[in-house]
């Protein structure tokens, strides 16, 4: 290229902001094919690795073999080109794959407003993540814990967990996931649920679905009943192991469960406002005694 370009020329070329005159002059230049070769090499690489020297050596060998006309390649400029292109691709790779993450602690709740105006209310000890940069084309949430969703109408909205997925278009629903537990309650609209073993169900308002330890169950519930969002956790035929985990998440205490059968099922509620009341509400009906070893440790035993 006979005319010297300014320091922003390459960046403007990558961003496709050259004037028509600059673009035409560049495409007719001797160095244009060299830059295309760099681009093609970057496209074929597996991010984030890139052997800049190998690409430049290949270009140099090609120029020496293919053309009878001798011309000097400005190596420093090509190194800069490769570096700028690598930076551009590396940043794009990071930007596209970056996740937005939220996490609650013991006894905590959090309301997350998603990019489309949808809301996710997280229960205690819950993590939620999504890709903000691809949200418009892929409304996908990754959830571990429990959350209540208010979804704006639009493209498919998916909640992905280790135990199953929930797909909706616009609705309100609750998802609970914990180890071998996957439970969905539809409060408004319609949702499609798929468990880890590929069993599916369509839920409408007041319908619930659970997949617990390989067992699938469907039932109806009252959408006006108090929930964890109101400070009261409720359960239906839930293994006591998970209820104990929920108590730990709300109150930050630890339980010694060596002397009880954690596979027992519990149906009922407990309050988030008073630990002793919550313990009595859960364990007295189950005929399980509880004693405090210290302020943060509770020992459970089968009542005599």
TrEMBL record:
Pfam family, one: FecR_C
InterPro entries on file: FecR, FecR_C, Ferrdict_sens_TM
Transmembrane segments: 77-96
Residue stretches making up the FecR protein domain: 102-192
Record keywords, A-Z: Membrane, Transmembrane, Transmembrane helix
Domain Protein FecR C-terminal: 234-299
Protein name (Swiss-Prot/TrEMBL): Possible anti-sigma factor
Source species of the chain: Kordia algicida OT-1
